[in-house]
Amino acid sequence: MKSPVREPAHTPPQIDPGRGFEWVQDWEMSDEFETVPVVNRWKRRYRWEIGNRRWLGRKPSFFKDENVEVKNGKMLLYAKEDTAPPNYPPGYGKFSTAFVRTRKTRRYGYFEIYCHLRDSKISSAFWLTKNTPELWTEIDVFEYSTSDKINTSGRHFKTLYNMNVHVHRHPHGVKYNDPKIYDARRDLSQEPIKAGLDWREDEIVWYLDDVPVRRYKNRDFHQPLHLQLDSETFPNWFGLPETGGSNRNNLPSAFEIYYVRTWYRKPIWD
């Protein structure tokens, strides 16, 4: 599977919308990171929220607004060795990471990013979620790390595309997660990749470089969700980078997103 070339703006997905439908781009949940000055990008009227006011980050890392930057036609989510502010609860420190999400939510559609994954134990992640008092669901398009650890099936993380679905809270008491792994058999951090999710009422399909790598019968994922991009530390899963400026920890480093594109299906006869 070769790394794809970046498709020009306004290019529809390579995924068939199905008979009787066409793709329509949702520009409130799409960004080419080229035409809007950075100073305007985070204003309330615009499409992104930076940081997470309900979650400080995954310990020992913490989200830091300054770790999000837009330049040279891409959004950069940095991870760095850092020190948490003194007012943070115990357990936060050592590493700062980054978090952004769309202000708008959407139910169903095709969600795609073209990106260069971080070469680090600290994750690069693309996911959709929303947390309300009644309902909290999550679809993980991918969580990725080039950790030198070996996973439970004896494979190297740097070739693994980790996908998941979570029902954290449900009015009927449903609660579960269903992780799946696709082995790309190549280091996914070496070249840009295209990651996509086709979320329909009856099925969810994950795509890597326009190739389907997982299918899931959709039972519980009908809640409008935010599109989110972030980086986290996973001490037990990926392990933690070394500290003290070691050449082995690949920090500071960036998860680079060249575009975010979202489409929805529209009946052709409308």
UniProtKB/TrEMBL annotation:
GO terms for biological process: carbohydrate metabolic process. GO terms for molecular function: hydrolase activity, hydrolyzing O-glycosyl compounds. Residues 5-268 form the GH16 domain. Coiled coil: none annotated. It holds the Pfam family Glyco_hydro_16. It comes from the Eukaryota. Belongs to the glycosyl hydrolase 16 family. This is Beta-porphyranase B. It comes from Gracilariopsis chorda.
